[in-house]
Amino acid sequence: MKRAIIPALTVLLAALLAPALGLAQSEPPSEAQTTTTGYNVWTSEYSVSRQQLESAIAPQFPRKLRYMDIFDVTLSNPRLGMDPAQNRMNTVVDAQISNPMLLPRPFNAVLSLSSGFRYDAGTRSLRLDAPRVDKVDSRDLPPQYAQQLTALGNTAADQLLRNYALYTFKPEQLQMNGKRFEPGKITVEQNAVKVEIKQQ
Description:
Blueprint: H1 2-21, H2 31-36, E1 38-40, E2 45-49, H3 50-57, E3 63-67, E4 71-83, E5 88-98, E6 107-120, E7 125-137, H4 146-161, E8 165-168, E9 175-176, E10 179-188, E11 192-199
């Protein structure tokens, strides 16, 4: 009899202490929420995986750009990577550059772009911030176009990535036990982006 009572008392004690310790959640996340992001009650962080970020940025590609009203540029095949040391996300894209008047044929290049993250309170969204081109690689583009290609990469980074929303928090994700929370520190890890949640 005593053995049966002890586990029940343990569960009851944990339920009573959880709110005081700040460990309780309002409701278990729905299936839609768990497929989008995950919440770690112990670290008070939401986690967005690299695969989820790839799915979020995929609609941006392929993308056609007109650079300086001279070059037609097609960007495609984005590959995402995480840079924890710089707290940034890397995006490598293929670029095809053409101009029948200046180039004998379309040329191919690879642009390595990167961006940070920020939280926009007005839209409750995790957005890309401060994008830039880190590297341009083209073996078949004439050397005299190297500077233009770098400038093109910065233009592409700005148009494609700046302020782009990767994830939007639902109102209920920022409310627990009758208290309101807001995202704080954003940390890039090897396979995910962690967003700290703190009480308002």
